[in-house]
Amino acid sequence: MSTEANNTEHIIDIQNLRKSFGDNCVLDGFNMYLNKGENVVIMGKSGSGKSVMIKCLIGLEEPDSGTIKIMGKDISKISTDELNELRTEIGFLFQGSALYDSMSVRENLEFPLRRHTKKFGKIKDTTQLVMEALENVGLAHAIDLMPNELSGGMKRRIALARTLILQPSIILYDEPTTVLDPITSKEIILLMMSIQKKYNTSSIIITHDVDCARVISNRMILLVDSINYAEGTFLELSTSKDPKVQAFFK
Amino acid sequence: MNNISRIKDVLKSFFAEIGELSFFTVRFFKEVFKRPFEFKEFLRQCYNMGNQSLFLVAVTGFIIGLVFTLQSRPTLEEFGAVSWMPSMVSISIIREIGPIITALICAGRIGSGIGAELGSMRVTEQIDAMEVSGTNPFKYLVVTRILATTFMIPILVFFGDAISIFGSYMVENIKGNVSFLLYYNQVFNSLEFSDIIPTTIKTFFFGFAIGLVGCYKGYNCKKGTVGVGIAANSAVVYTSMLLFLIDFIAVFITNIFVDI
Question: Rounded CA gap, B143 and B67, in Å?
């Protein structure tokens, strides 16, 4: 079922990834790649290791074994400073948005901007960049609000704006539509697509939302029994006869 | 057998906790000298901690001075030693009561606040978000808070001591018609550097302990929102115990080097 695209650049390459928590093995030889400009959706049961995989990818969890290469760099062999620099190329949208409670929307967006002077130089006035990121998500008016004044959908959009402000080339979405109503979910999905179009980003999207997967994915990976059990386009997987694959689309 | 294994488990987790706290302390000392120095965040934390605790420390200090004098006065009167009141109050407040009471109040106010704040940041993935954005969360959140408590607690203790002595003066003025100048003259005459210096050094350790335990509990918070409550609560309990231990050690060492 593999649909590996030829003649394209792998900007993420994961080989034989293993990760256990005590006796519980959540990833047992997981492999995947991400091409430039591609959207890969990863689906799996709760607790199947999707979020652990994405956290290993960004360096929040240390894998037991295996290699993770991002833009050709093996993240286990680079220094913390190099990893932090690489992280400016990777945006991460957390499941719960993870906005800093004690900061306003403006400060939330300025926070990563002020810390990456290597990429942007020392920016005296961040307002223009902050406004641009907020306009991209349609929430320019929320600039001075605090996170507790925002709805779930607004929080998700602001988190996306914070992710975008560093102009990453890869975006990792951890269940971007979870806990949202169907209308807001659709808005977020459309927003993700417009961002990809505008900035030509590559994305890994972890989701349980079949509609989201259908609309946004170029390729899908099903994580079952700690390995990438099946891989292919939405159409290929949704018409599969394999009962384990079919269970995701019923 | 069951009881023995339970005791073994308790001891095991106790020593594991001590070990983890030691690693956390070592990490603090490693990170504190590394760039970038989060000076703005440090100042913000100092301001927040001082601002939050000032009123509480003032009220408590004032009441302690007041009550301490009211309680001691009849006994001193019996022996005709009321004139010793300023000396007795100042020495006991400066050496012991002021620092320990202020530190305990701050452990409740600041330590639990740090535990709850960092704990909720941990469970809502804000600490992870910080790390992903290329910021060292340990340096930004932990180092700044521990430094802030280390420097702010001594200031709050000085402030609390001053208010306590003023509270004591109020009683003396009302009951004994003692003038402000006479009272404070006796207070400063009875105090020596050997009273002030060891106690000041001690308060830096108190501040360090409050910040360290609060940050340790919050930063390593687990088990969701329940964990946040546990982190805040255990930060206060462990810090209070640690404060008395530090106090005992400090008095013990002071006794060796200074002739009290």
Answer: 38
Q: Among partner residues B128, B134, B136, which is closest to A112 by beta-carbon distance?
A: B134
Token readout for B232 is 């805040």
pLDDT tens-digit series, residues B147-203: 999 999 999 999 999 999 999 999 999 988 888 999 899 999 998 888 899 999 999
Residue B130 contacts A, CB cutoff 8 Å: yes
Among residues B155, B121, B144, the alpha carbon closest in space to that of B50 is found at B155
**A233 burial level (CB within 10 Å; 0-12, 13-18, 19+):** middle
What is the sign, positive or negative, of the torsion defined by CA atoms of B123, B120, B135, B236? negative
Strands A227-232 and A219-224: antiparallel
Mean pLDDT of A30-47: 90
Run of H or E including A156: helix A152-164
pTM: 0.86
Domains along the sequence of chain A with CATH: 1-89+168-250 (3.40.50.300), 99-167 (no CATH)
The ipTM (two decimal places) reads 0.84
Any idea of the CA torsion for B163, B165, B168, B170, to the nearest 10 degrees?
A: -60
**A115:B129 CB<8 A:** no
- A220 near A43, Cβ under 8 Å? yes
- Taking contacts as CB-CB distances below 8 angstroms, the residues of chain A near B132 are 58, 60, 87, 90, 92
User: Residues B211-246: pLDDT tens digits?
Assistant: 999 999 999 998 788 889 999 999 999 999 999 999
Q: Is residue A116 classed as helix, strand or coil in its secondary structure?
A: coil
Using the beta-carbon criterion (under 8 Å), do A60 and B130 form an inter-chain contact?
A: no
Examine the pLDDT at B87 and tell me if it is beyond 60. yes
pLDDT at position B54: 93
Tokens 């602001």, residue located: A158
Which chain A residue is nearest to residue B136, measuring alpha carbons? A84
Q: What is the spatial distance between Cα B109 and Cα B122, in angstroms, rounded to a whole number?
A: 20
User: Token pair 């200074």 is at which residue?
Assistant: B258
**What angle separates helix B144-176 from helix B193-219, to the nearest 10 degrees?**
130
Pairing of strands A24-35, A10-21: antiparallel
* Whole-number pLDDT of residue A3: 40
| DSSP label at residue A140 | G
